[in-house]
Amino acid sequence: MAAMNYKIPGLLSISIMVIALAIAGYQLFMSSALIGILYVLLLPVVFLNLLYFYCRKCPHIPDNSCRHVIFGPIVKKLFRLEKPSHYKLSEIFLALFPFVLYILIFQYWLFQNTYLLISFWILLLTSAIIIRFGVCTKCKNTHCPGCPNAE
Length: 151
Fold this sequence. Notes:
Layout: H1 2-5, H2 7-31, H3 33-54, H4 71-78, H5 89-105, H6 107-110, H7 114-135
Helix pairs in contact: 2-3, 2-7, 3-5
């Protein structure tokens, strides 16, 4: 069971984030099928970008101990891994900016349904809190700028 404990926060945070993104997707499709399709098509691009610029340097990927569980095998399969090292400002920007932009652009349509907007943000923030306090605290990626275990 101890080996599974590190996986629970990672899987839970991803599951909650997927629910938040599904809520946003639902509202976007209800507003416009075209916007909904665009949202769905951009999602894998945004996540693969995040994995490419951030996860390739994570020391958990080579030893199959990814704290987000499913991201590790995806990164190993699709990308050439890099030696764990400090992240350059450009890598952080290229990893996070498209994701933040993706989330913010579609807020216009989420604002049309207050309940879904609030649900989306509660779930997204819950996911972020689980990542910060459930995933990061057990992570050995001391090069991560947000790492509580940083060197």
